[in-house]
Model the fold of this input.
Amino acid sequence: MLVAGTLIACTIVVPGRTKKHSAGDNSSAVIRSGERGGCPVWDGRRLRSTNSGVLSVQFTLGLGRISADGETGQISLSEKVITANSYTPDVLALSFFPKGQTEMIRDPARPQRVIADPGEKGGYTSQSIKQIRAPQTFVDIVVLNEWEYEIRFYHPDQVRSKQNGFYRVAGEPFSLTLIRNPNPPKTDTLEITTTKNGIAEKSEWKYDQGSDSWSFSLNGVETVRKVSEVNATNPCERVETRFDLKENQWLKTIKIFKAFPWGQDVIQKIEDADGVAKVTRYKYFEDPNGPHYTFLKTTIHPDGRIERHNRHPDPFENLPKKP
Done:
């Protein structure tokens, strides 16, 4: 996971899945990657980072307070793989449902589209967000062309009455975020630049299909690299090695993913792999007839402590975070 900001779990544009696919689903369609010669559990398909459930691109922008009780909101972009849709506001999501002190206006000029997700069966229908009005800020989203758009932030006192269904604004935005494809028509790089008070911060995600590797750079400095390889002795395991630049030193973390009928899940995590390695192991409920099928069963911590999960009959109650 390459992160610039915070993961948003609740959205209204990109519906989150609360339960994984069961054995009764068409599993080969669920994890379709278009490659052969791989894992027998996946009908010979090859494990890659782009057909896992891990989000590789995450970016959020705060909207300030959205309710009288002090709740705050965010607008986010979260992608497992970069596609042409990644450069459009169609894939933006909110962390809240607008009501009361907030208002959201969609953009009827943009057609409703089925957003393709390489790791899912089918897709979902979405129509772009055009404006968001909240107590502490106003957002106007402007599409510049096929490959770039802007998210413009204004103060509430800059908002004027509606015209043709949209609020008008006076003056310049106090913050502007540009989402663009720096190398069209290729879709291997996503660039996001936020300018506020005359200071620009640029985040850039890159994906190399040949090596199945991701990198994240901040203001031109690479700070994260993630490389994925299939286990040479087990095609149903994928080894993901991640390097994080911290205090001018690279910290190495290894995650081993296993192919299950429902998708990929982490079975082992090795933190500080080049130092004092801390190994955590994970096990899942694999009985398709059981109430907790696909959910986390056991975590074995580096100190040997065993933590058991999902003992309650309802697997959706107190669901633990994914490793």
Remarks:
- The radius of gyration is 21 Å.
- The mean pLDDT is 85.
- The first helix runs from residue 27 to 30.
- The chain has one domain: 2-10+19-276.
